[in-house]
Description:
The complex is a heterodimer.
Chain A: E1 2-8, E2 16-22, E3 25-33, H1 38-48, E4 54-58, E5 63-66, E6 69-72, H2 74-80, E7 88-89, H3 92-108, E8 118-120, H4 127-135, E9 140-142, H5 144-149, H6 158-172, H7 197-201, E10 205-208, H8 210-216, E11 225-228, H9 233-241, E12 246-249, E13 253-254, E14 257-258, H10 261-272, H11 281-297
Parallel strand pairs in A: 1-3, 1-4, 4-7, 8-9, 8-10, 10-11, 11-12
Antiparallel strand pairs in A: 2-3, 5-6, 13-14
Helix pairs in contact in A: 1-2, 3-4, 3-10
Chain B: H1 3-16, H2 18-23, E1 29-35, E2 40-47, E3 50-55, E4 63-67, H3 69-76, H4 83-88, E5 92-94, H5 97-111
Parallel strand pairs in B: 1-4
Antiparallel strand pairs in B: 1-2, 2-3, 4-5
Helix pairs in contact in B: 1-3
Amino acid sequence: MKRVVSVSLGTDQRDHRVTLSLLGQTVMVERRGVNGNLERAESLIQILDGSVDAIGLGGIDRYLVMAGKRYEIADARRLALAAQRTPVVDGSGLKDTWERWIVEDLTQSHVINPSMPVLMVSAMDRFGMAEAFYERGYQVVAGDLIFASRINYPILTREELIELGRKLLPEMVKLPFWQLYPTGAEQLEAVPENHYEEYFDAADIIAGDFHFIKRYMPLRLDNKIILTNTTTDADRAMLRSRGARDVVTTTPVIEGRSFGTNVVEALLVALSGLTQEHDGWTELVAKARRELFKLTAS
Amino acid sequence: MDLLAALETFAEQCNQNQRLRQMNRDWNRLVELWATDTDQRYWLKSEAGWITAGPGDAVDAELKISARNDVLHDIFSGIITPTEPYNAGDLLVKGRQDDMMRLDIITLLIWGE
Lengths: 298, 113
């Protein structure tokens, strides 16, 4: 049986293991959180190297891809290079396609429509999703500066998002990752003084990274549609208890957990031997998506 | 290398930048800058979106930055970014991480790409 492990900088309270069938093969998928400890993540990857079929990097992106440019986060590069034999992926091979398709699907099925204002809590880390909204005429507020840096400045256009990404990302990716993104126990904490509720209130669709959403969301989310990534049953129950109309995860929910894009990409690499650089990758991603969402439905 | 002149030019560039004024409209901070090799101190003040700079102590500064005079000069002249000396341990910062990140972002928005 193939084995895939996602090494996550997040809390170990969300660890889980599941066995599933995909693309005609059985695979065991495991998540192992290291509570924000980069050194622990590095040694775990070294231990797993050569003994599993693919490793996912969770809670950290290796690559941020914006408007044709790819920026590599220094700490993630260090983690990826800790493995010499087993491929290490961060989910960026899926985000650009999969998260675009979600916006298309939801729009086509009339779950959402361009008259609904969107808050993307962070768009530089999922530019594919942001572009899908822009291309369909949605009014998007990108909250990268607000939620990652606590600078109360909403980014209101695609052009400004790209301009800011071009100016900031080349340097930001060199910073220690903990300065850029909540890791470990910080992921479980809500921000005590939250001055940014107005952005949630003004939006009908709240999209993007769940840890940013969770840290900054107001007590009420009445009638809002949440479009996010990895969540647990408890997370989705909490969003509904605050009034959210719908919670859509960009990756399928299997056994109560939505997988991170890094997990799905690691699954595909392990099962097919292909990576995003290979021909046929996009078709493989589409096929796996159909199968995984069928699993969700069944 | 005149650090004070560099700081005053930096403040002027921030003030001429409408986007930075908007970003800093609710960022009221006093920043102390200590050039460790010359033992000279300077300050930067952000108030309602406007930045001022001057020589001397900054009593009750919320953010304290120390480095050699040339490092501070080069950061506030856009010759280097704060990230490089920070990661190398040549730039020490005491204060809230958010404030340091903001200064980083300000310099990148003035001089980035």
